[in-house]
Amino acid sequence: MSVAAPIVRRAEPADFAEVARLTVDAYRADGQLDEDHGYGELLADVADRAEHAELLVAADGPVVLGAVAFVLPGTRFAELSRPGEAEFRMLAVDPAAQRRGVARALVRACVERATVLGCGSLVICSRERNSAAFALYDSFGFVREPALDWTPVPGVNLLGLRLKLPTTVT
C-alpha cells in the first residue's frame, strides 16, 4: 500500500465503520484505553462525531488510514478552544499505517482549515506520555501552554499545546 501522499478529505458515512475501528485500535495500541473510562465507546461513535465536528480522514485511494475531528469553540467536542480559535481531537492513525506521514497530513489539514477560517490559534491536548505526538506537534510549531492542561478523569493527565496562526490584518 502506497501512502507517500495520503489525501485528506471530509469523512463520508461509508467511512464511519473503518474510522471507528482504526481509532479504537490506535488508542488501544498506544495504551490509552487500558483503563475503562468509557472513552473507547466515545471513540467508536463516529456518526456522532461527524455530526458535531468536521471529521477528516486521510486516505490512500479507497483505504482510510487515519482520522481527526476538527472542532470550533462552543461545539460538542470542543474542550480547549475559545472564540477565535480552533482545536482538533481524536487524531488517530491505523497502527498498520503509522510512521508514514498520515498524522502529519491530518494535522496540516487542521492547520490549513483553522487558517482559512481566520482563527488566531489552533489548540490540542495530548497525554503526557505520548512523545511521538509531542514531536509531531513541535515540528509544526505548537508550544506547551500549561494553562490548557487538564485531567478529564483521575489518572489521565492531558497537556495543552497552542499554535499561533498568521492572521490577516484588514
Automatic annotation (TrEMBL):
Return the PROSITE patterns for the record: GNAT
Where is the N-acetyltransferase domain positioned along the sequence?
6-168
Q: In the record, what terms sit under GO molecular function?
A: acyltransferase activity, transferring groups other than amino-acyl groups
Q: Which UniProt keywords apply?
A: Acyltransferase, Transferase
Q: What is this protein called?
A: GNAT family N-acetyltransferase
* Protein's organism: Dactylosporangium aurantiacum
